[in-house]
## 1
Amino acid sequence: MARFLGTIQGQRGEASRLGSKASGLRVDASSWQGRISVFLYERNGVDMALVRFEMHHGKGTDRKIIYEGPVSGACAECRGTGVVPIIGAGVARCAVCSGKRSIAS
Ligand SMILES: [Zn+2]
């Protein structure tokens, strides 16, 4: 059963592919200067996204994470909303769960 959907738009119109819980979904956007890859996968019932830089024909930045966390944008730990992804920070957590702010403040 499809859980994920990838769509692309280019010179020859639009195309799409479905992904299941078992297969996940990978979408690559490449240029001669590098690549951005998006992976969608399921973990403990939560749809997760991993967005990272990758090399393309020897150009670009190798596997540097831009965002990893719930595709909803929620905190990966408490599932609270309103997480602002931090580049290179790994799995996205809210300010409270990342220890940068107490609940009271
Ligand atoms: Zn949190």
## 2
Amino acid sequence: MTTKDYWKNIKKPIIGLAPMDGYSDSAFRRTCKFVNPDIITVTEFTSADGLHYSSEKLKRKLSFHENEQPVFAQIFGKDIETFISATKVCEDMGFTGIDINMGCPSKKVVKSEHGIALRKSPDLAYKLIETVANNTKLPVSVKTRLGWSDASDLIAFGKGAENAGANMLCIHARTYKEPYNVPAQWEHLYELKKHISIPLLGNGGIVSLQDGLDKLNNLDGFLIGQASFGNPWVFSLDDKPLSFIDRLPVILKHAEWLIESKGEQIGTREIRKHLLSYVKGFRGAKEYRSKITHVGCYEDIVSTLDLIKKEAS
Ligand SMILES: Cc1cc2nc3c(=O)[nH]c(=O)nc-3n(C[C@H](O)[C@H](O)[C@H](O)COP(=O)(O)O)c2cc1C
């Protein structure tokens, strides 16, 4: 098996955690893998220019634990030269593959003609894919959306990306113009799959593993994004409802891994938003909201969760 065949040979359906800036960092990827070791994960999007010019800081941000494998580095940009050095950095770090972001809709990214803006310059998009594919032994995938304001060029883009050397595509079934909470339009993905021979993953609006399997149709797999917030158990094969006490060991592992990877100060600050999602819907959650938003060290996290555990049980 050549590594370029990775996506063709991996067991189907492929199930994974979607890349999400501010969420899918090493600690959360580990947490989701802890719940279901068979999922794949993708890093938060990382600037190719940044990796090229100041790689040490970004390399720290990109670093991963070996238990996360297979993990894919997602890079964005539009400059051929910086993509080549970013690819090399990711390859040297030991990632299983490179994922190119052609879907990010953020104003700053689009203004720089990165992310989804590349769908307006398909020749440059194909050139970037080709360059990355020719400069690495790793499999190269592309994550994008249906299109700018509709899906009219999705099939042409999919074929172009495959011809340029992409080994897998993941399509978020919404357009650039659509916010994250409108219904995703999966029918365009089923149609695209008939026109390409590389694996195609669907993404958008999946609320559970069963929901993903129900939407699978002719696709090779799916990524789950927002439904994983405060709920890594969305990847669990066992759908029995979990009490707060059942959840606690996983929540504490997440906190531990966040502190381990980012240090106590940053880790504690960043766990707050996750804790708010973890306790949502449980008795005591509202009362302890302000305590959660002020946790300052690991012991604070443990004692606050302990208080909620008493309320919730
Ligand atoms: C907070 C947030 C950050 C995101 N960051 C990224 C990113 O870094 N790279 C990327 O390709 N997509 C990113 N996305 C898009 C998700 O990967 C996914 O395509 C989108 O959330 C739709 O899936 P969902 O409906 O399951 O959440 C982000 C989405 C959210 C909500």
